[in-house]
Specification:
Blueprint lengths: L2 E7 L33 E9 L2 E8 L4 E5 L7 H10 L5 E4 L5 E2 L7 E4 L7 H14 L7 E10 L1 E3 L3 E6 L1
Parallel strand pairs: 1-8
Antiparallel strand pairs: 2-3, 3-4, 4-5, 6-9, 7-8, 9-10
GO biological process, one term: cell-matrix adhesion
InterPro entries: Epithelial_Barrier/Signaling (IPR051495), NIDO_dom (IPR003886)
Protein name: NIDO domain-containing protein
């Protein structure tokens, strides 16, 4: 059975500097989200990811810390994802990495990047394998790819950058 790892690189900065070695975003040199409440285009997952007993072939990364998984490719509708989280309506399968109203616009807005296509380089896979095996009971875990989402020095709503997430 093949497995994949959802690698989410983030750490909260609470007044102290935290050094984090981020995973790279693979082959994409311009895979970033630059709009407030924006999201990535649909990302193809091959092989599909199994999540709570269902297999998903596509995902979307949102600016506000949400990964949405889909069975079929479709145009990303970030407002629909947010409405689902806030009102518990709709039929979305999500991981809320952190659910926050972040703002990447303006001076010091930080950046959000994602992997497109998924990351498959040997060094990243080995690092993910070691992290999962060391931190969980899954000692035989063997990732085949990584989905990487990075929220780096993003501020909160309305261009606030006095408190950021990295």
């Amino acid at each position: 059975m093949k497995y994949c790892l959802l690698a989410l690189s983030f750490a909260a900065c609470l007044g102290v500097a935290i050094t984090v070695e981020f995973y790279g975003t693979g082959e994409c040199s311009d895979c970033s989200i630059v709009d407030d409440d924006g999201c990535s285009p649909t990302i193809s997952l091959s092989p599909p990811i199994r999540f709570f007993g269902e297999c998903y072939s596509y995902c979307t990364v949102s600016a506000n810390g949400i990964l949405e998984f889909r069975h079929e490719p479709s145009a990303a509708d970030c407002s629909d994802i947010l409405n689902h989280v806030e009102n518990t309506t709709g039929n979305h399968t999500i991981i809320a990495v952190f659910y926050g109203d972040v703002d990447v616009e303006g001076v010091g807005g930080g950046s959000i990047s994602y992997s497109q296509p998924v990351v498959t380089d040997g060094n990243s896979l080995e690092r993910a394998k070691q992290q999962i095996q060391n931190l969980t009971q899954y000692k035989s875990f063997e990732p085949t790819y990584l989905i990487v989402g990075t929220w780096d020095r993003v501020g909160y709503y309305e261009r606030k950058n006095d408190s950021v997430i990295a």
